Amino acid sequence: MFRLGAFTDEISQDLERACRICVEFGFEGLEIRGVWRTPCQELTDAQVRDIRRIAADYGRVVCSIASPFGKCELEDSAEVAKHMDYLRRCGDIARELDCTIVRGFAFWGHGKREKPWRRMFDAYAPVPAILEEKGIVLGLENEAACYVGTARHLRYFLDGLACPRIKALWDPANHVQDPEGTNVPAFPDSFNLIRTDLVHVHVKDAAPTPDGNVPNVFMGTGICRWREQFAALASDGYAGFCSLETHVNPDQCPPETMEKYGHYLAGEGREGASKVCMAWIRDTLKDIE
Length: 289
Prior knowledge:
Elements: E1 3-7, H1 8-11, H2 15-25, E2 29-32, E3 34-35, E4 38-39, H3 45-57, E5 61-65, H4 77-96, E6 101-104, H5 117-123, H6 127-134, E7 137-141, H7 151-161, E8 166-170, H8 172-177, H9 186-194, E9 198-203, E10 205-206, E11 216-217, H10 226-236, E12 241-244, H11 255-261, H12 271-288
Parallel strand pairs: 1-2, 1-12, 2-5, 6-7, 7-8, 8-9, 9-12
Antiparallel strand pairs: 3-4, 10-11
Helix pairs in contact: 4-6, 7-9
């Protein structure tokens, strides 16, 4: 059975507080994007040691380093080079935290339907050697703001890279937020495109509005069909992490969710919304198990 994790900074910038809430809801994994208002690629060695200690104190593990690698302009060679340094640094951090996965992307897309695949492949040429040197896997995330936004884009890029250390990081909410994915169901067809190469899953929901936008919504109230996806992951024997990326604010909680889980909505920032989503995931998985 897969394990549950969460973006700690969606709960709190205070890592210990985030850990306490993860313990409360049975979420084992900590996804590190930013801690103590410091982006992961800028963490000092001392901060990394503190993360390791705190995770151990609370019996949690670091499941992914959610780096911004690849969220840069493809045509800016200096920026691409800087992001290669981000990947190296995040690889070092991952190893120090006994984590094998660093998250990455495939360049800002600016809404372009035509993808510059050849230039993208060329820009990724140094990546396999960096991954090999650091002993890590890159979880390549589909992201609507990047050239690789849908499951189909992700499948094509992975096949072209053909690197055993670059795997799929599936985010179905990002898929439906891409204009090319909004009307292509996240499950089952899109999920099926990448299920054999999954290394990590980001859990958040989204739903279209009459104006054509597809904002994030509370878990279980969108179009990502999480019950079915969780069941499929369990059936596949997927043993990685499903990591909550809350991405909603407490004041967005709909009445039907409020009625059942509203008592969890206390806390600063997105803490309350995170607890509501964690409770929904916990209860949904009881039905699957």
